[in-house]
Amino acid sequence: MKLLPQRGAATRADVRVIHQVAAWCLGYPDAELFGRLDLMRAALAESPGDDAVRLLQRFLDAASTTDPTGLAQHYTDVFDLSRKQTLYLSYWSAGDTRRRGAVLGEFKRLYRDSGLLVNLHGELPDYLPIVLEFAALADPARGGKALADSRSAIELIRFALVDVGSPYADVLAAVCATLPGDSPPDRASALATASPSPSVETVGLEPYDSRLLPILTGREAFR
User: Fold this and answer.
1) In contact, 111 and 134? CB cutoff 8 Å
2) What is the Cα–Cα distance from 210 to 112, expressed in whole angstroms?
3) Fewer beta carbons below 10 Å: N end or C end of the chain?
């Protein structure tokens, strides 16, 4: 199973399509997601042979042949009940520390400065499906930078999903294939660029956003 994106893998596909499809795929697998399967397949079919497209198509095939209840339980187990695969990007660079608030503020500023009305759906601004949807809707330079700046976090999530054998690893690999440069060869290399590493700091965090601890469920995104 090839899960390591290579330089230039997503050259023919419209990266905005890839980012939007990936955003939907990473939302909670409810009836709306399953109702979009044909739409997503049709959009991806316009770029056959592209590595990122192939990875997303493989996830869609897995989702369509999996019992919806089972996929929903897997999503909950992987993303809602464990920080090891959390989709909140700031956790990977700042952990639950004072600095995390600053990182979240940077995402809010990015959205505000873009001129787009970004609906957070009650989520934190660094929630990966929201960042992906922003990248799909914003101008390529602004949207691409938001993801490229979070490269180490996205790669670490990908490695974590590979470790648990999750089909969602294909979605993260597809996103990584749209980013400039090669993916890191191993987790240590990815972690080295995510400074400081995720940690927990509960002293001196008053006032703090109560949503930061614990990690929120992502199932309400994009409903």
Assistant:
1) yes
2) 23
3) N
Q: How far apart are CA 133 and CA 26, in angstroms?
A: 11
Cβ neighbours of residue 213 under 8 Å, at least 6 residues apart? 96, 202
Q: Which of 51, 26, 34, 7 is nearest to 171 (CA)?
A: 26
What integer pLDDT is reported at residue 194 of this predicted model? Answer: 67
Mean per-residue pLDDT, 172-198: 79
- Domain positions in the chain are 15-179
pLDDT, tens digit (0-9, with 9 covering 90-100), for 112-167? 888 887 888 888 999 999 999 999 988 777 888 889 989 999 999 999 999 999 99
**Whole-number Å distance between alpha carbons of 31 and 12:** 31
Between CA 55 and CA 58 the distance in angstroms is 5
Distances (CA, A) of 145 to 63, 107, 172, 221: 30, 11, 17, 22
Separation between Cα atoms, residue 96 and residue 94, nearest integer Å: 6
Q: Considering only CA atoms, which of 190, 175, 184, 86 is closest in space to residue 135? A: 175
